[in-house]
Design goal:
By secondary structure, the chain is α/β, with parallel strands linked by helices. Among the domains are: 115 residues, no CATH class; 238 residues, 3-Layer(aba) Sandwich (Rossmann fold); 116 residues, Immunoglobulins (Immunoglobulin-like, Sandwich), CATH 2.60.40. Helices cover 27% and strands 19% of the residues. The protein has 19 helices and 29 strands. The protein has a 6-stranded mixed sheet with strand order 1-2-3-4-6-9. Strands 10-17-16-15-11-12 form a 6-stranded mixed sheet, sandwiched between helices. It has a 5-stranded mixed sheet with strand order 21-29-28-23-24, with no helix packed on it. Helix 5 runs antiparallel to helix 13. The protein is globular and about 80 Å long. It binds beta-D-glucopyranose (BGC). The site of beta-D-glucopyranose (BGC) has 7 residues, from loops. The site of beta-D-glucopyranose has 7 residues, from loops.
């Protein structure tokens, strides 16, 4: 922060120059009809060094300074990514107690990924963008696209699964949606924040191939196709440098190779050094651990790495002014794209349209994993007594989880919606199990007696025609929650024991799991129906009930593999050094074989595979054919087939196209997703479907040449209903 005297002096001096040049006409930077780059240069030319540095660091927990003298507004950021976080005190994490900031909670991003529907991602982005706009936010801190490497990662629920192609296709429309409302998306966490354990310092060691082929593509798509206006550096380190000021990631890859022209924002407290922050690509420093204004200057915002120490370095000639100008330019550009844009639409907040959007996304993301004896759906009137068991039937699942926790206008619980649907005389509820209070860094068991809870649940289940068990994880610490990883793959709070006990009195059980992660299912063969329901936001109960009752046919597909046991997962199969590391380093020994790439290549049977999801109807695929079988490296192959809804109910299927190369100069996954399409078909309807795949997407990253390379030779294209249910193959040759 600048001293008052310097500020006054510089603004007086510049004020004169400014008034003279702008006497009769609007200065260029205020002229919304001028091109943004001209406005940026003009504003920059009018600013003092102090004012430029003032743009580069926080002034409060979630905001940074504008240029008050020039009328350039402050930047207000807010989490993200599932709704607009409540207002907090100026310099604290705690809620400020405003009463106008109860938001709509949208489904978690794992659910969005499970829709396999880019149109819904656009709807998601627009809707949350409108909520952010209404609340006058400049930047929405989301979406997150870190790859699902281990089912223990506490933040997987905020991300889009294990496949770089799927995440890429879904992140782009989300960003386009948000930014169409004049709010900057901030894609996070760049990069390799794939675990919460030791997230502040863990140094990731991985091959270039794994980096470029698995962990970067979704960020690249976000930048180059989604044209994200900002990106958030991650807490961890890559090759010995913190990712918030990492030369390779930020200067070389992001800004040089990808031509990113937006703002690199640090994760909160992710900057550690002035020299590196100045030189290695950070533009806006947020949240450095500070008591800020509350303790009168003990680590106030002026002590941030990109505040006074930066200013001093520039004045002493230690740092080239060009480095400062570049950061200021990027921040100004973001401001002109958002708050100072003439085309900025208005927002709306907690509108019925947002509820409807949330409900649509939620019900399209729900994945039916098992459905024997057609236990589901359960139409109204089919059964007299439905037992609903489990804490997640009533618990709030928008609260907790860390920075994505939301203060919501409303949240419809599964129990409330089921009761509304079937009538209270037909629903009997029992808690069954209980989690403890959430304490940061501690797991507190519930004080309720487990045996009594089970006994009560058995009583309810015994007399029922069907049991809906609603459990899973929650957003407590060491569950699906930021700042820590899960301790095991198992369902917590004694749920396995409870399910076993329930099975003894009633075999008609549908297990509904609400979580952002895979869990082990020791009872998988004993229950007839299983549904993966994610965290579904404000409309959770309605969306689940829509599917359970059969008003909506489930069409979600898993965006990540469910392992049978933890050691089956690639990262874990290499032992502790591969996850979570030795507390200093983590070695990604699984390399490019993440998720289904590992299961398929190593021939390990997953519990449920990537891309899998059942429907209440059935689909038949014809034999696929290619428009050409000899292709150049810049060619595009079109794969055509007919898809038939061969059942009696309208529904949607996601056809998936994987590529496989048997003979290769490098290790390859047995198959990799390269295209997909979600197709809605009425019962009996037939549609001719064409999927297009550019040959260059078959490339691998050549480490020796530091570039992408398409190998010549033959490739097999596999058309499937999931990564493990391949319906047909086509052989093509690349010259
Ligand atoms: C999280 C970010 C979040 C930020 C601000 C950090 O701890 O990692 O995802 O946007 O806090 O709340």
């Amino acid at each position: 922060m600048l001293t008052f005297k310097t500020k006054l002096l510089s603004s007086l001096l510049l004020g004169i120059a400014f008034t003279t040049s702008a006497q009769n006409n609007t200065p260029i930077y205020l002229d919304v009809n001028k091109p943004i780059e001209e406005r940026v240069e003009n504003a920059l030319s009018l600013m003092t060094t102090e004012e430029k540095v003032g743009l580069c660091h926080a002034q409060s927990k979630f905001s940074s300074m504008g240029v008050p003298r020039l009328g350039i507004p402050e930047v207000w950021t807010d989490d993200g990514p599932h709704g607009i976080r409540e207002e907090v005190f100026w310099d604290e994490w705690s809620g400020a107690g405003w009463t106008n900031d109860y938001c709509t909670a949208f489904p978690a991003l794992t659910c969005l990924a499970a829709t396999f529907n880019p149109d819904l991602s656009l709807l998601y982005g627009k809707s949350i963008g409108e909520e952010a706009r209404y609340r006058n936010k400049t930047v929405l801190l989301g979406p997150g696209v870190n790859i699902y490497r281990t089912p223990l990662n506490g933040r997987n629920f905020e991300y889009m699964g294990e496949d770089p192609y799927l995440a890429s296709r879904l992140v782009v429309p989300y960003i386009e949606g948000v930014q169409s409302i004049g709010v900057a998306a901030c894609v996070k966490h760049f990069a390799l924040n794939n675990q919460e354990e030791w997230r502040g310092h863990i140094n990731v060691s991985l091959s270039d191939r794994a980096l470029y082929e698995i962990y970067l593509p979704a960020f690249k798509a976000a930048v180059q196709e989604g044209k994200a206006w900002s990106i958030m550096g991650s807490y961890n380190q890559l090759r010995g440098e913190h990712c918030c000021h990492n030369d390779l990631l930020l200067n070389k890859i992001l800004k040089q190779d990808w031509n990113f022209d937006g703002v690199v924002i640090s994760d909160w407290g992710g900057a550690h050094d002035t020299d590196q922050a100045v030189k290695n690509g950070l533009d806006l420093e947020m949240g450095t651990f500070t008591n800020g204004l509350t303790t009168n200057g003990k680590f106030p915002y002026s002590s941030y790495y990109l505040a006074d120490p930066f200013l001093k370095g520039v004045k002493e000639g230690k740092y080239d002014i060009a480095l400062l100008n570049d950061k200021a330019r990027r921040i100004l550009r973001m401001i002109f794209r958002t708050t100072m844009s003439a085309n900025r639409p208005f927002g709306r907040f907690v509108s019925p349209e947002h509820s409807e959007a949330g409900r649509r996304i939620a019900r399209e993301g729900i994945v039916l994993l098992k459905n024997e004896k057609q236990l589901l759906p359960i139409p109204v009137g089919k059964y007299n007594k439905i037992a609903v068991i489990g804490e997640n039937a009533t618990r709030s699942l928008v609260i907790g989880g860390g920075s994505s926790s939301l203060k919501v206008a409303y949240e419809v619980s599964p129990l409330a919606a089921l009761t509304e649907k079937y009538g209270k005389d037909h629903i009997a509820y029992s808690l069954g199990y209980a989690s403890g209070p959430s304490m940061y860094g501690r797991e507190e068991p519930s004080k309720l007696n487990t045996d009594s809870l089970i006994a009560a649940a058995i009583n309810v289940a015994k007399g029922a025609d069907v049991v809906l068990f609603v459990g899973g994880l929650n957003k407590n610490h060491f569950q699906d929650c930021e700042g820590g990883d899960r301790k095991s793959l198992d369902l917590p709070f004694g749920q396995n024991k409870l399910i076993d006990a329930l099975l003894k009195v009633n075999k008609n059980i549908a297990v509904v799991l609400l979580s952002g992660n895979a869990v082990a299912m020791p009872w998988v063969d004993k229950v007839p129906a299983i549904m993966q329901g994610w965290y579904l936001g404000s409309e959770a109960g309605h969306a689940l009930t829509d599917v359970i009752a059969g008003d909506v046919n489930p069409s979600g597909k898993l965006p990540f593999s469910f392992p049978k046991k933890l050691e089956d997962n690639a990262a874990h199969s290499f032992g502790k050094l591969s996850y979570p590391g030795d507390s200093v380093n983590v070695w990604y020994k699984d390399d490019i074989l993440v998720g289904y790439r590992w299961f398929d290549t190593k021939k390990i049977e997953p519990l449920f595979p990537f891309g899998f999801g059942l429907s209440y109807t059935s689909f038949a695929y014809s034999k696929p054919s290619a428009d050409k079988t000899e292709l150049a490296t810049d060619g595009i192959v079109k794969i055509t087939f007919t898809l038939t809804n061969s059942g009696k109910i309208d529904g949607a299927e996601t056809a998936q196209l994987y590529v496989s190369k048997q003979k290769s100069v490098v290790t390859r996954a047995v198959k990799e997703l390269k295209a997909f399409r979600k197709i809605f078909l009425k019962a009996g309807e037939i549609q001719v479907v064409t999927l297009e795949v550019p040959v260059r997407s078959f490339a691998f990253y050549n480490e020796a040449k530091h570039g992408w390379e398409v190998e010549s030779g033959s490739y097999t294209l596999l058309l499937g209903s999931s990564s493990r249910d391949i319906k047909g193959k086509v052989e093509i040759h690349v010259k």
